[in-house]
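Predict structure. Chain length: 471.
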Amino acid sequence: MMKKHLAVLAATAVLGVTSAFAANPFSDVTPQDWAYQTVAQLAAQGVVNGYPDGTFQGQHNITRYEMAQMVAKALVRQDRVDAEQNAIINRLANEFSAELNNLGVRVATLENKVGNFKFTGDARLRFIGHEKTTTSLDVVEKDKEDKSGKEKVLTEKMMKKSMFDYRGRVQFAATVNDNTKAVIRLVGSKEFGAAGNPKTTIDRIYVQHNFGKYLTATAGRHDLTVGAGLTYDDVFEGATAMVGKDALNASVSYGYAPALGYNAVFGGTKDVPGTSNREVSFFAKDQKDNAQLAVFQVNGMIGKAVKVGGFYTKVNGVKAIDAVTAINGIALDADSMKQAEKLTKKSLDFYGVNASVKLGHNLMVDGEFAKYVDLKHSNAWTAGIAYGAYDMKKAGTWMLKAQYVNLDVMAPVFSSTYMTPYNQNYKTWSVLGKYAIAKNVGLAAYSTIGAKDKAGNDVADFYRAELNYKF
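Prediction complete.
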């Protein structure tokens, strides 16, 4: 707490008060007092008030409630101060948001008045590793063409057993009007010790508009979570319209998913030790070659403890034959092509359902299932149980979670919420722990346990630890 005299001096600086001499209304503030002129000016403008007995009591500590009163009055004057003072008012409004709400001043609506621009961000230090070195096989296109067209071949590379990296993100949000905002996010990342400077890029840029209380539209490069995140939780380039609230809502998204692709694993055997995986992206350089997604989702609450949802994703531009070819890693020969001819007319549409249930104040179970409409061996499902009440804003809060993931050879999983290192031909138990070591500073650790491919072959376990900061 600061003394009232100091607080009013700070208020003078923030408000830019420069009025001439004003009469002093407080009996305990004399002309000889070092804060006399400041107190008089702010009292004349109604920024500070005294007590019913006519005293100011500047020697006492100012309360949060009294400071919030000053901030509320400062918000009214924000159009008469410079940018630096405006930024200070904005930070004070965030700090005293609870007290301002009690005063009937809604900070959520005042953000538009205290400046149409703000930024937030986060930083992460991360360690990731595998139980042993693994081999990655990438599907690429060969320049040479033959009768069957461009031939797909495999390139092999050794994946590092462990790696340290860092990442920083800053998001800038500009309020266009009461219902519209524009957002840009800049991200930079780099492995410790690697050559060159951090790789920086703009990874989010979109506009969001509210059409009344129940309809929101977002267009541009924004985040999209399909279902509860088992199949896709990543960037999306296109448009999303959502209607409803938490109790019941529906959404439609149309556009492109840059993270659409496969990462299938093949476990080691006695004859072939080690782990290999095959990566292929369906996101091509040319827009005409990319899959277009139309995602339809419905989510709702049953009572206060049960959340359910379902989705259907229609995929245009990529057929089932393309996926089968990619996952096998090579172009199919003539005989295989004949056997796979029926797939040329099949789609890559996929659907899913999910649910989560709160069993107590800190206990929750969840699960999700997804599958391709036209492909066999494409089941993907997960179930988990979590205990704790982790909140990165509250130091000392924590959470522990156990999860089981089972992904078929052709599972429709591309960029999952569940931190699976591989997306197809994979099953594993995993454990996750989170702890807020200080306000806005969180520590997280994750590890798979007994990972295998669908044939029961061993797969190198994966582990990850990270320290996250938010500002």
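Summary: The longest helix spans residues 64-76.
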